[in-house]
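User: I'm putting together notes for a lab meeting next week and I want to include a structural view of one of the chains we've been expressing. I don't have a solved structure, so I'd like a prediction I can at least talk through. The sequence is below, exactly as it appears in our construct file.
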Amino acid sequence: MSLLKIFIMIFIFVITISGQVPDTLWTKTYGGGGSEVGYSVDQTNDGGFILAGFSDSFGSGGYDVWLIKTDEWGDTVWTKTYGGLLNDVAFTVHQTIEGGYILSGLTDSFGNGNGDFWLLRTDENGDTLWSKTYGTTAREWCRYSNQTSDSGFILIGLIDSLNFINWDLLLLKTDKNGNTVWTKTYGGEHFESGFGIEQTSDCGYILVGFTN
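Assistant: Thanks for the context. Below is the predicted structure for the 212-residue chain, given as structure tokens.
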């Protein structure tokens, strides 16, 4: 297997009459001797970047969530890993209204097993403030999350209760401390999953994903 490394490239787009090709400002790679994949990046209030995904070079075992904070030039400020002995992956990271970070994804190490939604709140240095799992003995995979106007969080993904026979879209709302406010499922006889969600101006939600 070829080694995978987190890769980030920042482009500046210059619009001219001649249609000049955008110039690359810089590129960076991050990783160790194993495989690393980056799934999410967000620009931070200080002009730097926060990246999240997984690593099997660092951490406790299996895949672990890997969080990287960089400056505006992509140079590493700090890195953190989160996870247990099995596979744990972050698909989304955002800087919160309060200035720390919120990570979401899936965990096999914690919760009820077989894959659960995982929501992890950190301070501005990546130190864990709290960690929450949501799920049953079925598979639940969180593919995206966002902070809501009430400082809580909305998570979207899938629940697979029939062992790859039928997936349903799973939507979960929490308060600011990660406590469940409500959950909803949407789907039919085949496969549905959610991949993105935004809060709308009237305080509802708009969802995107796929359906069979």
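A couple of points you could mention at the meeting. The chain has no helices and 16 strands. Residues 10-17 have pLDDT under 50 and may be disordered.

User: Perfect, that's what I needed.
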